[in-house]
Amino acid sequence: MGGFENFFAHYNYVATIVLMVAGLYIVIARGNMIKKLIGLMLFQTSVYLLYIAPGKIIGGTPPILDANFTIYSNPLPHVLILTAIVVGVATIALGLAIVSRIHEAYGTIEEDEIIARDDQE
Amino acid sequence: MNAVTAQLPALQVVIPLLGAIIAAFLRRGTLAWAWAALITALTPVIAFAQLHQVWTNDTISYRMGGWPPPIGIEYRVDLLNAFVLLLVSLVSTIMMPYARRSVAHEIDGDKQAWFYCMYLLGLAGLLGITITGDAFNAFVFLEISSLSTYVMIAMGRDRRALVASYQYLIIGTIGATLYVIGVGLLYLVTGSLNFADIGTRLAEASAAYPRPVLAGLAFLFVGISLKLALFPLHVWLPNAYAYAPSFATAFLAATATKVAIYLLLRIVFSVYGVAIDLNTLPVSTVLYPLSIAAMFIASILAVYETNLKRMLAYSSVAQIGYITLGIALMNQAGLTGSVVHLFNHALIKGALFLALGAIVYRAGTIKLDDLGGIGRTMPLTFAAFVFAGMSLMGVPGTAGFISKYYLIVGALDAGLWPIAFLIVASSLIALVYIGRAVEVAYFRPIASAPANAKDPPLMMLVPILVLTFASIYFGIDTELSAGVASRVAETLLGGLK
Amino acid sequence: MLAFAPESLVIAALTIPLIGALLIPLFHSAPNARESVTLATAGALTFTVWSLLPHVLAGARPAAIDIAVVPGLNIAFSVEPLGMLFALIAATLWLVTSVYAIGYMRGNDEPRQTSFYVCFAVALWATMGIAFAKNLFTLFIFYEILTLSTYPLVAHKANGEAIRAGRIYLLILIGTSMVLLLPAIAWTWVLAGTLDFTSGGILNGKTTPFALCALLALFAFGIGKAALMPLHFWLPAAMVAPTPVSALLHAVAVVKAGVFTILKVVVYIFGIETLAYAGSGTWLVYAAGFTVIAASLVALRQDNLKARLAYSTVSQLSYVILAAAILTPISAVGAAMHIAAHAVSKITLFFAAGAIYTAAHKTEISELAGIGRRMPCTMGAFAIGAISMIGLPPTAGFLGKWFMLSGAMQTGQWLPVAIIVVSTLLNAAYFLPIVYTAFFEREPAAHAVGAEAAHEHGEAPLPIVIALIFTAAATIGLFLFPEVPHALAKLMVGG
Predict the structure, then answer these.
(1) CA–CA separation, C64 vs B445, rounded Å?
(2) What chain C residue is nearest to B445 in terms of C-alpha separation?
(3) Highest mean pLDDT among B262-276, B436-450, C277-291
(4) C336 is a domain residue
(5) Do residues C121 and C195 share a domain?
(6) Integer CA distances (angstroms), B264 to B47, B124, B233, B260, C427, in order
(7) Mean per-residue pLDDT, B423-433
(8) Does C486 have pLDDT greater than 60?
């Protein structure tokens, strides 16, 4: 199999990597604390894709026992990712709560301004 | 009786987890504290029973919900995690009496119950990471402990606590996500999430898909290293420790990084080590330079730090370097040193941070320059600081010496005598930063902040003294520390391919 | 007299100073009771240690306590002749110094006297631990305790100079012991599989002469308390401490712990024959010889009395190392004798320096003109100490040098002989002028130095004078009756 076909045969991984790197880039490059959290979400979402995509088997049915079907999709990744989504939501919620507290305390959510204000003290 | 004994692994996590929920509904701070103390006190009993069982019999395997592994989640207790469970639960229990005054002093009355709720959640998370035999379950517990930790840090008095918490949240989440990616890659190639099961299947999988297996190790390694603050991934730690409430700092310093190190040991030795020759993996190659950099650079940063909490935080980064150095050595003495330092450092840092918390409680500051003469106004507290500090330096006759001794012998056994020198040379830097605090505390005229300070009430003083005593005592009687650690090392190394 | 089992005497010697250290703070507000505790503790310790002597002379090696910390590292004690000698010196002189310290601390109105006496007792406890240690690990523990417990004594004055001196003290002593001594101990453990002090050594045939040489270097420089140049400068720095500290700790307990450790390592870890056969100790003769001469030359140029004494100590310590490095049994006897001789003589000199400071508030040699006429007892004792330092009969200093020279000549090592002869001349050159100035120069007229310096004074307070007369007498007594140290030293080398 050539590199080109290889690339398309694994397009789900390509999408995962693009999302992952984009998310990480936002976290690193942005000073706005909300934007950083958005980047973090993107980063986490890429992982959901990484788990779910291989669980789907082409031609497979939902994993319900039935005599007519023998090929099932793997249900386990879905269950895992359900948990991961809950964890992710909780993390982002907590992150947003902290950012709003930071806004109350500093009057800004720009990281460099906050650092400047702390240094003034 | 037997019915209870059989459920111990589940109870170990479920008790603090449910306890946390109940704590949230107790509106009064003192009541929540009493509840948290009671729940905490149950955990070492369970941990000790399990350690006893593992020591005399064999590994405990518990099927959560009755589902057999690898489909179901398995709680698996062997000597290594029984030891870590005991350490975490015991240190927390010793610290609990201290919490009431310190938390009441630093956190508003209506929020104290929330604090104890978060503390119990954190404890449940840490115990969960340690006890579970399932890689994804470990991630969930990792996030439970992390989320509660972010909240605890954000409850610090200074507004910088919020920023510290936010930064830790970002870095911690990245770390946890990298860990899940690593687990995902392992799942893709082995089809299993159970640590032991992955271990048995990994050899075959690695032959078929060498690259994802290696990439998985890299993701797991970096993810966990962020959590355990391996240099240079430690940047979140100093601020988090410095601005968190004093009790939270002591709790985290003594337990959180230790559990992350446990997870690293588990991944490296029980998952990868049993399947692949570790010498072909770049674990030591990466750990040697980073550990040594941590030992020196972080120690030197500690020397220049005037905020005592930040000073000890940098010192923690350096001490983690010793632990990872022992892992890098991968021989009996080195690994024993690593595991025993896990134990000793938890006691030492616990004692030191509790002492600092007492200084915050009485003198209201931890800026070194404002603390002239504190050794004379708070004699017992600062004496504890000095003795725990000696143990940190590794003065012979203290627990810290035992760790250093094993590491040195490990380095000599590996034929790496320059590393033996680096170990002793870097512990000299600890002499400098502890000595600097001692000079200010005893030989400067009494400053205004400590002038009216005195030793804290007994409820706070006793935990400090107990941990200090332990950090000396385990330098003389090492059966529980080095004795167990050396058997742990034996088991870990014995399982290697 | 009640006869105690020697084992229980060992335990007693190891607990009495610690009990004293715990009791002293209880009498914080009652100085007289507090000093009584110190004296009682020192007296009890001295009695205990002397009661041990007959047993050891009779050939017993009483052992006590054996705790395995980790496999191979035991905290264990056993009394052998050299340790017995060291313990005798330290305990007896502690009693004398306690008397002296009471006069000195009160006479100079020093602050924080309670913590001073506590640290002193802990330091003596550590000294006993060093003396009676059965293996290197135990010795190492107490070696570090000794450093840590004397640090507060060095920094006692709490001014900038004292704090700086304290830093140097800690950094050099802890630094050398951690960076050099600890690896040396670990290396020994890896090579020999034991750390017990054993007659004839434990390293025979275990490694190459070159490795022995490196190991010896780690030990010689790692034992920073022995003040081998260039790691000697903590000792002059430590002189900011109150004089009783300089006298007992920095002329006897701490520095002797250093050379004692070196001697023990050479005799019981390496083994004299192993080293002599491998030729790995030759360089130590040069290093020690250099220190002997160089420190004497520096001492010549010191005007501060305590600084000159400190450099003299550096030089004298290296005599012991030199004697050990000659590697003959008879020179090892000389080394042990010199430990005893130097202890009583140097403590006399420091006592005298402290007496001068207490009575006349003078610290510089150039200020001492004519002081011998105001303080005849003090300066008389000083003269005896100085003669002993030079090594002339009828003082103790003569004996140590005699044995060292015999050992060196026996094996035809002419370099050590030359070093000893030259340094004797240098000793004379820096001690005799002090005695001359004190007795034969005229005291300057009052207006020449200002009214303050020339105030009227006589001898120092009585406890001080008693103590220094005692040690001066001991300096001569040891020459006339050298049986005890000599017998112990000969037992050490198995003669």
Answers:
(1) 44
(2) C158
(3) B262-276
(4) yes
(5) yes
(6) 21, 19, 15, 6, 63
(7) 89
(8) yes
Spelled out in words, what is the top-level CATH class assigned to the domain A3-120?
mainly alpha
Q: Note the pTM of the prediction, 2 decimals.
A: 0.89
pLDDT digits (tens, 9 = 90+) for B308-352: 999 999 999 999 999 999 999 988 989 999 999 999 999 999 999
Domain-located, residue C25: yes
Do C251 and C313 belong to one domain? no
For B222-359, where are the E strands, in sequence order? none
Confidence of residue C217 (pLDDT cuts 50, 70, 90): confident
Q: Where are the domains of chain A?
A: 3-120
- N residues, chain A: 121
Domain boundary among C214, C249, C270: C270
End-to-end CA distance of chain B: 40
Q: What is the dihedral of CA B481, B482, B484, B487, to 10 degrees?
A: 160
Task: Judge if C47 and C169 occupy the same domain.
Answer: yes
- Answer whether C69 sits within 8 Å of B443, measured CB to CB: no
Please indicate, yes or no, if residue C275 is contained in any of the structural domains. no
Quick one: closest CA in B to C154, which residue?
Answer: B443
- Given this model, what pLDDT does residue A90 score? 93
Best B162, B167, B179 member to test A by mutation, with max A CBs in 10 Å, is B162
The model's confidence at residue C451, banded by pLDDT at 50, 70 and 90, is very low
Q: Do C189 and B427 touch (CB under 8 A)?
A: no
Q: Are residues C122 and C183 in the same domain?
A: yes
- 8 Å CB contact between B80 and B50: no
Nearest one of C335, C209, C316, C206 to C267, comparing CA atoms: C335
Q: Average pLDDT, whole number, for chain B?
A: 90
Note the pLDDT tens digit of each residue in C127-177: 999 999 888 999 999 999 999 988 888 888 878 888 888 888 888 888 898
Q: Please say which residue of C212, C247, C270 terminates a domain.
A: C270
- Asked whether the CA dihedral B35, B37, B43, B46 is positive or negative, the reply is negative
Question: How far is Cα C465 from Cα C478, in angstroms, rounded to an integer?
Answer: 20
C390 and C433 part of one domain: yes
In which domain, by residue range, is C387 found?
A: 281-495
How confident is the model at residue A3, as a pLDDT? Answer: 65
Can you list the alpha helix ranges (DSSP code H) found in B244-298? Answer: 246-265, 283-293
Query: What's the distance, Cα to Cα, between the start and end of chain C in Å?
Result: 31
The total of structural domains in chain C comes to: 2
Q: What's the rounded Cα separation, in Å, for the pair B342 and B365?
A: 29
pLDDT for the residue C82: 86
Cβ–Cβ < 8 Å for B266, B80: yes
Closest CA to B52 of B8, B17, B96: B8
Distance from CA of B208 to the nearest CA of C (A): 43
Nearest 5°: phi and psi at B77? -110, 115
Domain match, C335 and C444 both: yes
The CA distance from A57 to the nearest CA of chain B, in Å, is 13
Contact A71, A57 (CB under 8 A): yes
ipTM: 0.91
Q: How far apart are CA A51 and CA A62, in angstroms?
A: 16
Among the listed residues B298, B256, B268, the one whose alpha carbon sits nearest the alpha carbon of residue B198? B268
Residues C357 and C456 in one domain: yes
CA-based end-to-end distance of chain A: 62
Mean pLDDT of A57-73: 75
Pairing of strands B60-63, B74-77: antiparallel
Task: State the pairing for strand pair C73-78/C63-70.
Answer: antiparallel
Nearest to A51 among B151, B166, B184 (CB): B184
- The pLDDT tens digits for C41-54 are 888 888 888 888 88
Interchain pair B405, C186: CB under 8 A: yes
In a shared domain, residues C442 and C488: yes
Give the residue, B131 or C98, on which the prediction is more confident. Answer: B131
The residue of chain A with its CA nearest to that of B176 is: A44
